[in-house]
Amino acid sequence: MAQGLVGVNDGEFVIFDRQQLYRVLLNELDDPETLLGDELIRDGTYFSRYQPVVFMTMDNSVVETIAGEPTLMKTEDPAGWVAGLDIEGYLRYLYVLSPENNQIYKYERLSNRYGAPSEYNVDGDVRDASDMTGDGNVYVLKKGGQVVKLLRGEMKPFVIRQAPEGILEHATKIFKSFDGNFYFLDPKNARVIVVGDSGSTGEATYLKQIVLEGDQIGELQDLYVDPDDTRLYVLDEKRLFVIDLQ
Predict the structure, then answer these.
(1) How high is the pLDDT of residue 27?
(2) Fewer CB within 10 Å: C terminus or N terminus of the chain?
(3) What integer pLDDT is reported at residue 158 of this predicted model?
(4) pLDDT for the residue numbered 21
């Protein structure tokens, strides 16, 4: 059962379940590959600066794949990697969301390893978080639909105007295109909620919802939007759906 989607380049993705990776290029699906031994996958992200796909495993290891070759990555922290629910790569840093510690850990990627982590979150409440995304700011989606916005680790205002009451109550994933909109995945209602950029004021505007209809739609797992905000990709347990946004 597919559980996650990592966008790599235009029309290129890696879909993963707990044990295997499936590379997708345009409409071609490669044979599945095992990540590394018996490692079970927790989450994945694309590190555009260095161009690997990065995975965190259930035993808190980090594995990078470059050109399909998996490499187990070390951290300079003697205690090893912190347990995380979600990972995101931005510039030269890997961010690890740890709701149980009410913290986001920031690891600098060095030439062949990662530095020891620093604590990014200063005053935000990221307990009960389910997902995060970033564009220079970090946005954390909490269970129930609250969004916490952090800039250099400090909380900033964030509100969604003109949104129907409870619109994000069942959202499980958040995605932010760099200069574009927010996208929230709502598996319970088989929809994606689209919200405009909040800018420096922290005031975003509800734009629309996109409902996936049909007997073939399974439980939605993940989403991705291309850098130009032209195509939305939505993953269920078995299929990848493409939706034109323009």
Answers:
(1) 78
(2) C
(3) 96
(4) 94
Q: What is the DSSP letter of 161?
A: E
Tokens standing for residue 235: 């993953």
> In angstroms, how far is the first alpha carbon of the chain from the final one?
30
Q: What whole-number distance in Å separates Cα of residue 176 and Cα of residue 183? A: 6
97 token code pair: 């969301």
- The full 3-state SS of 57-124, as one line of letters, equals ECCCCEEEEECCEEEEECECCCCCCCCCCEEEEECCEEEEEEHHHCEEEEEEECCCCECCCEECCCCC
Amino acid at 8: V
For 152, counting Cβ atoms within 10 Å of its Cβ (0-12 exposed, 13-18 middle, 19+ buried), the class is: exposed
Please calculate the CA angle 99-58-220 and round it to the nearest 5 degrees: 75
pLDDT bucket at 179, cuts 50 / 70 / 90:
confident
The arithmetic mean of pLDDT across residues 122-138, rounded, is 96
Determine which helix (DSSP H) or strand (DSSP E) holds 169, and give its type and residue range: none
Which run of H or of E encompasses 144?
none
Residue given tokens 């470059």 in the structure block: 66
- 183-227 pLDDT, tens digit each: 999 999 999 999 999 888 899 999 999 999 988 899 999 999 998
Nearest C-alpha neighbor of 75 from the set 45, 52, 108? 108
- pLDDT greater than 80 at residue 152: yes
CA-based angle 103:43:70, to the nearest 5? 120
Say if CB 85 and CB 129 are below 8 A apart. Answer: yes
